[in-house]
Amino acid sequence: MSDFTAIEQSREAGFGDYVQLLKPRVMSLVVFTAMVGLVVAPQPVHPYVAFVSILLIALGGGASGALNMWYDADIDRVMRRTMGRPIPSGRVSEGEALGLGLGLSGLSCLMLGLAANWFAAAFLAFTIFFYVVIYTMWLKRLTPQNIVIGGAAGAFPPMIGWAVATGGVSVESILMFALIFMWTPPHFWALALFMKDDYSRAGVPMLTVTHGRAATRRHILVYTVLLVPVAFALAFSSIGGPVTLLAAVILNAMFLRGAWAIRQRDEAEAEADGYRIEKSFFKLSLAYLFAHFGALLVDASLRSFGVGGWGWL
């Protein structure tokens, strides 16, 4: 163990370590998609209620991250990508992470029920349960389809935002869910292509480990093809519009091109250039989702001026 590592592991946890437990980068996606779901809903929400609701949804997402880190501490210790996290590095104890996760889970769901409605609160509670129990504790270590089924947890936030505004579920909120759900496998499998050794050491049955990288490349292309009609269905829905349609055309063309390039690669070529295309596709996948939901926001803004959507054409 290097002197730097020893110092890093021995120092006391700071505020930033507890923030890291909440997976802030993942939380940013949760916050953004939940906000879009709330804003594009047909029923207006008081700005104060909207702000508090999004904050509570973010806390619920952070609680899920803390509970995930608590349960996955054993495999985080052997993966290069995660060994610097607060628990494996020794800065935060597993008990602290568990306490923080449970506390924030209860607080976020209770307060969301009081601030917005109990349907949205129950939806948030179910999302936390799904991510922690169904995905983290069960699917992640059981099946190579872990990220396919478990990806539903990350797709629920826009539905929760919609539920805050409407108190229910609709075709539009399901389409937002479906976009994230179908996007998740190619997004994570691209990461797995250049992080395969990590998952092998941790004993996580990611598709790259159980079926190999060639099969993973084929799966990325298949799910990308299946993603396209969902994106266009959302564009032509009541919350879509010309901007969302333009985004769907451009982004899906880029995504399909990237998935096809990944499919055509052999391992020797990919390894020789450091998985450059796979890493670029992973970065593109992040921009893909943010841009799609950003386009929904633009169309919603245009509708507020009477020029958005499809009715004005």
TrEMBL record:
Lineage start: Bacteria, Pseudomonadati, Pseudomonadota, Alphaproteobacteria, Rhodobacterales
What's this protein's family per the entry?
Belongs to the UbiA prenyltransferase family. Protoheme IX farnesyltransferase subfamily.
> What is the main EC category here?
transferase
Name any Gene Ontology BP term.
heme O biosynthetic process
Task: List the GO cellular component terms.
Answer: plasma membrane
What does the further note read? Carbon 2 of the heme B porphyrin ring is defined according to the Fischer nomenclature.
E.C. number(s) listed in UniProt: 2.5.1.141
User: Which reactions fall under this protein's catalytic activity?
Assistant: heme b + (2E,6E)-farnesyl diphosphate + H2O = Fe(II)-heme o + diphosphate
Bilayer disposition of the protein = Multi-pass membrane protein
Query: Sorted alphabetically, which keywords does the UniProt record give?
Result: Cell membrane, Heme biosynthesis, Membrane, Transferase, Transmembrane, Transmembrane helix
Q: Which residue spans traverse the membrane?
A: 26-42, 48-71, 92-113, 119-139, 146-168, 174-194, 220-237, 243-260, 281-302
Q: Its function?
A: Converts heme B (protoheme IX) to heme O by substitution of the vinyl group on carbon 2 of heme B porphyrin ring with a hydroxyethyl farnesyl side group.
Q: What is this protein called?
A: Protoheme IX farnesyltransferase
Superkingdom of origin = Bacteria
Which residue spans adopt a coiled-coil conformation according to this UniProt entry?
Answer: none
Describe which pathway this protein belongs to, using the record's wording.
Porphyrin-containing compound metabolism; heme O biosynthesis; heme O from protoheme: step 1/1
Family matches, as HAMAP family: CyoE_CtaB
Say yes or no: keyword Membrane present. yes
Q: Its principal location?
A: membrane
The protein's assembly and partners: Interacts with CtaA.
